[in-house]
Amino acid sequence: MNLLQPRFKDSQHFKNFWTKGNGKQLIDFSGAEVSFKDFEEFSKYFYHVDEIGDEVVKEVYFTKKYSEASREIENYIRNGVSETDNVPESVQKLFKQIQTIPDWIDYSLLKTGAELCMRCNVDSLISLRDYCLIGGYDYAYLNKPLIVTEALKKGAVKRLSETLDFWVNVTRYDALEIHNKGYEFAIKTRLIHSYARLSIHKHYKNWDTENWGKPINSWDMMATYIGFSLVFLHSLHKLGNTFSEEEEKGHFHLWKYVGYLLGIPEELLPNDKKQATEFFYLWTSIQPSSDQDSVLLAHSLLNESLENPILKFNFQRKNLRYLHICCTWYLLDDEVCKRLQIPEVSFRNGFPYVKRFVNKIYDQTVSRKNRIKKGNKDQLKVLADYLSVTQNSNFH
Q1: pLDDT digit string (tens) for 201-257?
Q2: What range does the record give for the signal peptide (predicted)?
Q3: Domain around 86
Q4: N or C: which end of the chain has fewer CB within 10 A?
Q5: Which of 80, 98, 116 is the last residue of a domain?
Q6: How far apart (Å, rounded) are the C-alpha atoms in residues 102 and 15?
Q7: Are 256 and 186 in a shared domain?
Q8: Is the pTM higher than 0.90?
Q9: In a domain, 240, yes or no
């Protein structure tokens, strides 16, 4: 295999993103100093995967029925695995890693990070959907595993529901303590990634490793987690939310630990927004801009509001779709929106500007404690609505 180069660094989409688009905003937001000096150190992770997770899937999932394997893994997660337990070697190895609390963990920072996610209430969900998720679709190679595993057929409602379920459960109080719900979600998600990766290897012979990297490789995973940390914070900031240095630190700490549990190598997990922006810069240099699949994924997400039966009336669904389109235009570069063929709508800055204005007042008039309480309640309500729709067996 040839040595990987920052092959898109001279292309227009890369340059525009980092000199006048969201990339430039990220540099201004974080004080990052971007360059290619560490490119080789990171680029090897394009061909690196979570082998520990892969071995567990081969030994547990591929040797029995899926439901049986899932029960077995759930049992290990909830009860723990000790060195004397009679379990497959790969399971021992996985649990030795995840049951070892890294020495850098700071529980008060995890708590502060979780509070920020809850405190920003619906803005957190808007950020995840209209910036992190849809913005990620602009990176054509990053989406290949989604396309190959036919995620489009599963539909955006289900995919959004799964992302929300994961995000809400890892961002509550004490969620990541061993055996708790967020911890369980992280481990299961890690094994789903391994399962998908091995299935792609098995069934999809046209996978282009040289260009796309290995399926769900460690470098792509890093970029995804920078979406949950850096891009998410930048979005909250654009929507007029303020946060303290401590909250920001806590937020990165929380996602660093989630990334650790997911098997992302520690050296790929940024500690702050400056480092995250510098890491992200290198990764974007190997990604081409949107292709036809990107447009399909973006439109599937935009039309989710119309398909989703949570809102009873058609006019409500249309209105929700309109509001998401306004936020997408507001949060992403115009150039990215045009590439993803986001529809043009009138008064598209109206809703985001009102949101910013209201946030400024809300921040000053409601106590932090009450905002956290209300945010947690509202986010759990949205999740419950989604789960009630997707767990209903006739919904496809």
Answers
A1: 999 999 999 999 999 999 999 999 999 999 999 999 999 999 999 999 999 999 999
A2: none
A3: 51-98
A4: N
A5: 98
A6: 38
A7: yes
A8: yes
A9: yes
